[in-house]
Amino acid sequence: MRQAACKSAAFRRQRGITLLTGLVLLAAISLLALVATSSMVLQLRMAGNFEDKQLALQNSSLAVIQGEGFLYSIGHDGRAPECQVGCFNLPLSAIIHPPLDVPAFPEYEDPNWWRSKAVDAALDPLSGMRVESASAKGADPPRFLIEEVYFDPLTGVSVAADAPPVKGIGYYRVLGRGSGQGAAAVAVTESIVARPWQADALPGAGIRDANEFCAGFRPWYDCGRMAWRQRR
Questions:
Q1: Which H/E stretch holds residue 58?
Q2: d(CA 17, CA 155)
Q3: What's the pLDDT at 10?
Q4: How far is CA 195 from CA 65, 103, 192, 214, 222, in A?
Q5: For each successive 10 residues of the chain (232 residues), what is the average pLDDT?
Q6: What's the N-to-C CA distance of the chain in angstroms?
Q7: Which of 182, 153, 173, 155 is nearest to 226 (CA)?
Q8: What SS3 state is found at 144?
Q9: What whole-number distance in Å separates Cα of residue 108 and Cα of residue 113?
Q10: pTM of the prediction?
Q11: Model pLDDT, residue 154
Q12: Measured between alpha carbons, how far is 67 from 73 in angstroms, rounded to an integer?
């Protein structure tokens, strides 16, 4: 009888050890599953953040392109000839800022500043009509602003006889701000653009494509995008 009791106690100990081992293994598997799930969630968040930042960069680049196109589309009478500073009348003067009117680091200005200073890239600044090529998805519409950096009147500069009679060349920086689906994802890009000005309307006003606009001025004058960079 004592032998049977010992066997029963040993059996209970074996069952207890087996149960404990199973619980330990179950806890280890649960911990591994929890770590794997947390890692997967983190990777999904990282991928989402990266995609959101790429969307913000895409929207800011789109805004720059729209700003450049608007600058090319202005007729040659939009800027006063032989004028150095503050040469645009309303409503252009509210869109094209004079030199040093924009802060040195506009990429760190808050959204309210951009809403007050910049132009919605999806709308034509003068007519208010929607620009079909400027559709974008983001928490805030992509916006651009234009600042005249320097104007070269080309005084005393001799060019080829068949070159168009350019009065001067304006150099501008075009800033674009875009956001992703989340307000925290923001990108700001900048381009430096050269734009010849002359008395007559060659080429015609309304052209928004850089290559088409600048075809009438190259190779005699600087025209089109000179530089580009991402500021934020």
A1: helix 2-73
A2: 97
A3: 61
A4: 14, 22, 10, 8, 7
A5: 57 70 76 70 66 91 93 87 83 90 92 93 84 69 94 79 84 95 89 85 65 87 94 92
A6: 85
A7: 173
A8: strand
A9: 10
A10: 0.78
A11: 83
A12: 10
Q: Amino acid identity, residue 21?
A: T
In angstroms, rounded to a whole number, what is the distance separating the alpha carbons of residues 141 and 178?
7
Residue labelled with tokens 């500073």: 85
For residue 62, give the DSSP letter: H
Residue type, 230: Q
Which of 218, 213, 142 lies closest to 176 in space, CA to CA?
142
Q: How many CA atoms lie within 13 A of 127 on its CB side?
A: 9
pLDDT of residue 28: 74
pLDDT score, position 123: 86
> Which residue type occupies 131?
V
Q: Strand pairing of 96-97 and 143-152?
A: parallel
Task: Report the alpha-carbon distance of residue 95 to residue 83 in Å, rounded.
Answer: 18
Which residues, including other chains, have CB under 8 Å from residue 178's CB and lie 6 or more apart?
A: 55, 56, 57, 58, 59, 60, 61, 62, 63, 136, 138, 142, 186, 187, 188, 189
CA distance 76 to 87: 12
